[in-house]
């Protein structure tokens, strides 16, 4: 609280009160002009229990290429993002701890409807609208349905990829893999993004992880044969450049 050192007389005291009232009236409207982000809320939902996740949550089938490679190393950013995601998911689960099961299922059904809407928008080429639908679905989908949320993150990554939001797409792929480590589609999508942004070592690790889970994935097998040579050539080139300085 502000101290009024010269408020020994009633006139000074009243003067300071007027100043305080004036400052409050000036700051009030500024706060009102910046309302909370409407996307942060969870709208109510309705409906009966949906089908299991495997039946009602399907990923977008396409793989996409980044048009402009990003060469900077963002390993620290990805580590920070991963920790933040874990905190966010844990926080959401804590908030939902006392939520009735019926309400969870209602929210799940509404998030499924938004996901399907996003898929249709994606097919039409409305990638910005699809991204928005997936984001809204993530706001509604309870954190306890981790595989459902993994699909939503992966689908949103696909929509972001089409808009050249490369790093944001990588972040969403990472969130999907954290929620479902066996999610091959998300691993493949992230590996492709890593490769397109010249992060060959990270791409190779993801392709290897895919092969460990499913040795029949041709894309991963081909990449595991091709990338080691590319990595070696890159390292040799860097070594020569360093020696030439």
Automatic annotation (TrEMBL):
Stored Gene3D superfamilies = Tetratricopeptide repeat domain (1.25.40.10)
Q: Which InterPro entries match?
A: TPR-like_helical_dom_sf, TPR_domain_protein, TPR_rpt
| Pfam family of the protein (one) | TPR_1
> Start-end of the TPR repeats?
111-144, 150-183, 184-217
Stretches the record annotates as Disordered: 1-129
Q: Does the keyword Transcription apply?
A: no
**Basic and acidic residues bias located where?**
55-70, 79-127
> What keywords are assigned to this protein?
Phosphoprotein, Repeat, TPR repeat
Keyword hit for Transcription: no
User: Subunit structure of this entry?
Assistant: Interacts with the GAP domain of NF1. Interacts (via TPR repeats) with HSP90AA1 and HSPA8.
Report what the protein is called. Tetratricopeptide repeat protein 1
Source organism per UniProt:
Ceyx cyanopectus (Indigo-banded kingfisher)
Gene encoding this chain? Ttc1
């Amino acid at each position: 609280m502000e101290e009024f050192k010269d408020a020994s007389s009633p006139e000074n005291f009243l003067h300071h009160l007027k100043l305080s009232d004036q400052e409050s009236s000036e700051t009030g409207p500024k706060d009102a002009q910046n309302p909370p982000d409407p996307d942060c809320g969870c709208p109510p939902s309705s409906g009966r229990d949906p089908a299991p996740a495997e039946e009602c949550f399907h990923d977008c089938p396409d793989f996409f290429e980044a048009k402009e490679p990003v060469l900077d190393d963002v390993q620290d950013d990805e580590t920070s993002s991963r920790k933040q995601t874990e905190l966010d998911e844990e926080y959401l689960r804590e908030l939902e701890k006392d939520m009735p099961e019926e309400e969870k299922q209602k929210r799940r059904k509404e998030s499924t409807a938004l996901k399907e809407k996003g898929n249709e928008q994606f097919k039409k080429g409305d990638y910005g609208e699809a991204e928005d639908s997936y984001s809204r679905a993530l706001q509604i989908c309870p954190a306890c349905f981790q595989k459902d949320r993994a699909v939503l993150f992966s689908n949103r990554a696909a929509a972001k990829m089409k808009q050249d939001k490369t790093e944001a797409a990588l972040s969403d792929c990472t969130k999907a893999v954290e929620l479902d480590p066996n999610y091959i589609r998300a691993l493949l999508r992230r590996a492709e993004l890593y490769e397109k942004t010249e992060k060959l070592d990270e791409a190779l690790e993801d392709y290897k992880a895919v092969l460990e889970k499913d040795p029949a994935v041709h894309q991963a097998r081909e990449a595991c044969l091709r990338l080691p040579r590319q990595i070696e050539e890159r390292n040799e080139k860097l070594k020569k450049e360093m020696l030439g300085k």
